[in-house]
Write a structure and sequence with these properties.
- This protein has helices spanning 14-17, 38-45, 61-64, 85-89, 103-118, 121-129, 158-169, 183-189, 196-202, 222-226, 245-253, 293-311, and strands at residues 5-8, 25-28, 50-53, 72-75, 94-96, 150-154, 173-177, 192-193, 205-208, 233-236, 259-262, 282-284.
- The chain has 322 residues and is of the alpha/beta class.
- The chain has 2 domains: 5-101 and 293-311, NAD(P)-binding Rossmann-like Domain (Rossmann fold), CATH 3.40.50.720; 103-284, 3-Layer(aba) Sandwich (Rossmann fold).
- The chain starts with a strand and ends in an 11-residue tail after the last helix.
């Protein structure tokens, strides 16, 4: 009896794969510095029993038509907007993701981005490296303090609540908007629920952590940015498509808002000539929200556990809910 075949669309450290190699034949994509190409993905899905994929791997009807043996597909992410779920489910394939394990790493990154943007840290680093630091002056690269400022969190899920706890430690006032009220967060963190429009008007820092859905696609548009304070800073660690990037660029160059910190973009990897990359008041990161060594290892292990569980006839640990 043959071992199930599992294909992973990126390179994975051998030490993480070793405990599972007696359960399945595991093959990984060859190149570390580039994503799997469409032809290879098409070839591999044709005979894979299980797959581990990334957000950049589009799993749609056309690709799934090639899948003859596929029983489970695990996304190395909490999001799964790269999955065409209707096509996956009609074939009886189990789809999984990695919630919970990346909450703290992503919250840390979100707050680091907020601090870096608010206090102009990247701009200051370049200032020193480029030999522009000639003297001290009272308002040289002066930024924005966090204490007693309003942070508005759009999307109060696990990560949103973790960001709120960090903000509380900095003495910030917490506003939030979510599809449902989070009464526990209101009690424990003195978080205040408000409408989206009210949050935009009252917040000094607007932090986007909402999932990408039909309702949130393009949520931060010209109208949204026009309602924010001129002194406000926008942070996005959600999905690039939640933001109209042209509207964001216009808001920044016109002075409608003060700055932005972005871990995600509409099209990734972002092109080096992207207009937002030319603005000093914007901090740009390459989608590294969960990129701590500890968290990435936990995410990989969870994917492997999900895949091997299903291939051995057990329930997945973190199936994507219907």
């Amino acid at each position: 009896m043959r071992k199930p075949y599992v294909y992973i669309t990126r390179q994975i450290p051998e030490k993480l794969l070793k405990p599972y190699q007696n359960i399945a034949e595991i093959k990984t994509w060859t190149y570390e510095d580039q994503p799997v190409d469409a032809e290879t993905l098409k070839e591999e899905i044709a005979h894979a029993d299980g797959m581990i994929t990334m957000l950049s791997d589009k799993i749609d009807e056309e690709l799934l038509e090639q899948a003859k043996n596929l029983k489970v597909i695990a996304n190395l992410a909490v999001g799964y907007d790269n999955f065409e779920l209707s096509s996956i489910r009609k074939r009886g394939i189990v789809a999984t993701n990695t919630p919970d394990v990346l909450t703290n790493a992503t919250a840390d990154l979100t707050f680091a981005l907020l601090l870096a943007t608010g206090r102009r840290l990247i701009e200051a680093d370049r200032f020193v490296r480029e030999g522009k630091w000639k003297q001290w002056s009272p308002f040289l690269l002066a930024g924005t303090e966090m204490n007693q400022k309003n942070i508005g969190i759009v999307g109060m899920g696990r990560i949103g609540e973790a960001v709120a706890r960090r903000a509380k430690g900095f003495g910030m006032n917490i506003l939030y908007h979510n599809r449902t009220r989070k009464e526990q967060a209101e009690r424990e963190l003195a978080a205040m629920y408000c409408s989206f429009e009210e949050l935009l008007k009252e917040s000094d820092f607007v932090v986007c952590l909402t999932p990408l859905t039909k309702e949130t696609n393009g949520l931060f548009n010209e109208e949204a940015f026009s309602q924010m304070k001129q002194s406000s800073i926008f942070i996005n660690v959600s999905r690039g498509a939640v933001v109209d990037e042209q509207a964001l660029y216009h808001a920044l160059v016109s002075g409608s808002i003060r700055g932005a910190g972005l871990d995600v973009f509409q099209h990734e990897p972002v092109e080096p000539n992207h207009p937002l990359l030319n603005l000093n008041q914007v901090v740009c990161l390459p989608h590294i929200g969960s990129a701590s060594e500890e968290t990435r290892e936990e995410m990989i292990i969870l994917c492997l556990e999900n895949v091997t569980n299903v291939l051995q006839g057990r329930e997945a640990i973190t199936p994507i809910p219907y």
